[in-house]
Amino acid sequence: EIVMTQSPATLSVSPGERATLSCRASQSVGTNLAWYQQKPGQAPRLLIYGASTRVTGIPARFSGSGSGTEFTFTISSLQSEDFALYYCQQYNKWPPLTFGGGTKVEIK
Amino acid sequence: QMQLVESGGGLVKPGGSLRLSCAASGFTLSDYYMSWIRQAPGKGLEWVSYISKSGTTIYYADSVKGRFTISRDNAKNSLYLQMNSLRAEDTAVYYCARDTYNQFTGGSWGYMDVWGKGTTVTVSS
Fold first, then answer.
1. Does A32 sit within 8 Å of B61, measured CB to CB?
2. Tens digit of each residue's pLDDT (9 = 90 or more) over B4-25
């Protein structure tokens, strides 16, 4: 099973600032990595797949990069609606599909 | 508008059973591979089970294997999860989610682009 590790667990950022989240895989997943956003009481929403491809309609301030075992998710200028939980998920080798533990982006 | 709506959650005693349903609208369920994912209170996401378009390929997480059964009725545009021998650690919000189509293999990629709002399962005496 591929273990996904996200850091930090919590990220405190001021509105308008940049947020950088990390995701590490226990073995290479190529670019078969997705990022999801989850707000309290809501289902996850797919933001990025293929490590760096934004879903249609997702603002350009959201970006992803990386390959192999190291991935980065960036929000270039945080808006109020971006404060949420973010999860990475690998789909290179499954089952099982595995998610990271999540990073909470909170208001500083 | 593409939508998934789960139902069937509730409070059940340890050892009990529940059957979750997921109704699809705005798209044809038979065109897609589907998964169940759960989230325990205050915890992260855990993939539970997957079913192919025809239902011939099924996968389970080790934590539920032998206790849960995924199925689908494409004629009813519905997905199901039969949960038996429930344990306290099965307490979670259960989401059904649509997998994305892999045009290179004809299968699914493994990431989910449409999610339901979830149904809550609580296992407690």
1. no
2. 999 999 999 999 999 999 999 9
